[in-house]
């Protein structure tokens, strides 16, 4: 199928017409100036007139053609060449403008689009190269998506298959722990096996949750609830653990009795992760504060503690899966490194965002999201 040429817009056609008119006017003025100069030179130098005539007649034998006709014809041909060159140059500039516009359109994410028109020689080779590059990029992206999807499916299937036998192992180990063994070594190793099995189950559960949430295979089930009640319940559930570590948990909601529409079960998972992180990794912390602030149809949550500062280099990577801040996170704490990644995916499903700030006085996780959940196409 033959590709069409670039279709100029009415504005571009007008621009091309004005360019032609301006060029013609300038050439006429230039021709007139040259004619006046030549005429003035001939009048003021009579010998030059005779010499010029003899030279031309001798070389070209134009006995029947006046010198004026020859000069006018030459200038007309030269004017036509200049006019054609300027219009062609402007037309190529317009073609380049169309190519750049198409490139901007593709760069905005329309990777199924191609530059589907014919332009001049060198520019056409560039257009063909651009189309080939986009094809290669799209092919690579599709291949990467396919590989990523296969990996996610593998992780989901493996973690799902591991959870069932792990649950049985943990159950049997828990039962054995209730028995009184005379050999202390047996009891000791039984406890270690039980703890490690629980850690493996946490990892398997987190892997399964992350892949399902990341692939948007989880449905959001929104319902109406009071934000104050949710945060107070969360604070109460961690009160004992916090007390053992000498940490106080506070809740602050402004204004009070904020009604919200969202999946409170999944939001609860997010706050569980954030509070657990504060308890595990907020070294030297004495206070964990949960806040909620209503701003028109948006709500801002924060989970903050006055513990050890998170390095600036780690702040932007906290929500990557399996990422751990050096010297502050380890498998000894029982974490999988997926809690914050899962939290980010859940907030994204609610059309919100989550980020972290940290300085020597305060570490804060901020969640900004709509007060009322709405489906997006």
UniProtKB/TrEMBL annotation:
Catalytic reactions on record: ATP + protein L-histidine = ADP + protein N-phospho-L-histidine
Species the sequence originates in: Holzapfeliella floricola DSM 23037 = JCM 16512
Keyword Protease assigned: no
Protein name, per record: histidine kinase
The protein's Enzyme Commission number: 2.7.13.3
Membrane-topology descriptor: Multi-pass membrane protein
Predominant place of localization: membrane
KW 4Fe-4S (keyword) present: no
Histidine kinase domain: residues covered: 157-373
Compartment list: Cell membrane
């Amino acid at each position: 199928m033959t590709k069409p040429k670039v279709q100029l817009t009415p504005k571009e056609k007008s621009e091309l017409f004005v360019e032609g008119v301006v060029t013609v006017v300038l050439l006429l003025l230039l021709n007139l100036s040259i004619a006046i100069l030549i005429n003035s030179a001939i009048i003021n130098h009579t010998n030059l007139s005779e010499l010029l005539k003899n030279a031309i007649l001798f070389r070209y034998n134009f006995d029947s053609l006046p010198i004026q006709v020859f000069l006018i014809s030459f200038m007309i041909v030269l004017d036509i060449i200049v006019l054609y060159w300027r219009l062609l140059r402007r037309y190529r500039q317009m073609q380049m403008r169309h190519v750049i516009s198409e490139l901007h359109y593709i760069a905005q994410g329309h990777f199924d689009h191609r530059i589907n028109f014919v332009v001049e020689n060198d520019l056409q080779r560039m257009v063909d190269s651009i189309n080939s590059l986009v094809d290669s990029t799209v092919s690579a992206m599709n291949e990467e998506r396919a590989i990523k999807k296969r990996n996610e499916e593998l992780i989901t299937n493996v973690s799902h298959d591991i959870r069932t036998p792990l649950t049985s192992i943990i159950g049997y180990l828990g039962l054995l722990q209730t028995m009184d063994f005379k050999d202390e070594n047996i009891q000791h190793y039984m406890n270690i096996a039980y703890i490690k099995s629980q850690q493996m189950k946490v990892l398997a559960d987190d892997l399964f949750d992350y892949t399902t949430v990341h692939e948007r295979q989880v449905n959001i089930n929104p319902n109406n609830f009071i934000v104050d009640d949710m945060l107070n319940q969360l604070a109460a559930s961690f009160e004992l653990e916090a007390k053992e570590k000498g940490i106080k948990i506070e809740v602050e909601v402004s204004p009070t009795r904020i009604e919200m529409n969202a999946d409170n079960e999944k939001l609860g998972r997010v706050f569980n992760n954030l509070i657990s992180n504060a308890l595990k990794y907020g070294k030297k912390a004495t206070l964990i504060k949960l806040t909620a602030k209503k701003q028109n149809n948006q709500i801002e949550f924060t989970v903050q503690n006055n513990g050890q500062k998170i390095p600036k280099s780690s702040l932007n990577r906290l929500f990557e899966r399996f990422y751990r801040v050096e010297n502050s996170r380890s498998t000894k704490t029982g974490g999988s490194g997926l809690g914050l990644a899962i939290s980010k995916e859940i907030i994204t499903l609610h059309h919100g965002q989550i980020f972290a700030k940290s300085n020597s006085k305060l570490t804060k996780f901020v969640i900004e999201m709509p007060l009322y959940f709405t489906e997006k196409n």
